[in-house]
Amino acid sequence: MKAKSTILLLYVAWLIAVVMLVFAAAEKQPDSFYTLLRWICCAVFAYSGVVSFQMKRVPWLSIFAVLAVLFNPIFPLGLDRTQWIVADWFSIGSVVIAAFLFLKVSKN
Fold this sequence. Notes:
Blueprint: H1 2-26, H2 31-54, H3 58-70, H4 81-107
Helix pairs in contact: 1-2, 1-4, 2-3, 3-4
């Protein structure tokens, strides 16, 4: 039962992060939105890395670790808007792919 609740929490966190990333990539937002986006995405991707480690999915642990560092709010990277849009869409794609693969594993 614990595994199902962990996966459910992970999917809710991914949904929140993906919605925020779509808004960030779609149009210009206020600076406070991007600050909140960094905090939420960093936390979600760090949690995703922990769950990936628990599920023994090391490649996904690596991907989520890179994404957590990318969205790190403490030591932000100096990317311009175009680079952030690419990073946002890459992050969205990674989460969507992971969602399908983790669902497949959780059903077994």
